[in-house]
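**User:**
My hope is that you can spare some time for a protein that puzzles me. This is the protein in question:
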Amino acid sequence: MALRIISVIGSSKATPELVGLAEAVGKELGRRGVMVVCGGLGGVMEAVCRGAKSAGGTTVGILPGHTVAEANAYVDIPIITTMGYSRNVIVAHSGQAVIAIGGAFGTLSEIAYALGDHIPVVGLHTWHLDRNGQGELVNDAIIPASDPVDAVEKALAAADRRVRAERVET
């Protein structure tokens, strides 16, 4: 079976609710043998890594600064970028799909990078997008999820479709 990688993005200053959702997402990804990629810091990023590690998963943190010391304690593979928020491009593109949990403008930028390059995004209590301020939601731009298991199932299904489509194109 090919390596499966899901990027998880979200609030660095997360509420207890978002922390619980992120940890459950991480646990479900780890249980399924899926590698987790995130920004490597606190909040949702730390919670998803903690959950993944508790289920035997592997975590990658794409760090904004100059040192491994900024990574949360649950990151297995820290990647130092020295790029600040510009690292969001790498986070968004490293997964075969993205799960967004909560989030502020950094998360919104990662969503935009992913969607702009046809990387599926599953949303769990995150941004809702409308087109050109018209109030009309962009249907299926962000795939809504009802809970952590639903988010993981939808992300893996979308990632599988993406991988199959890429194989057909090449």
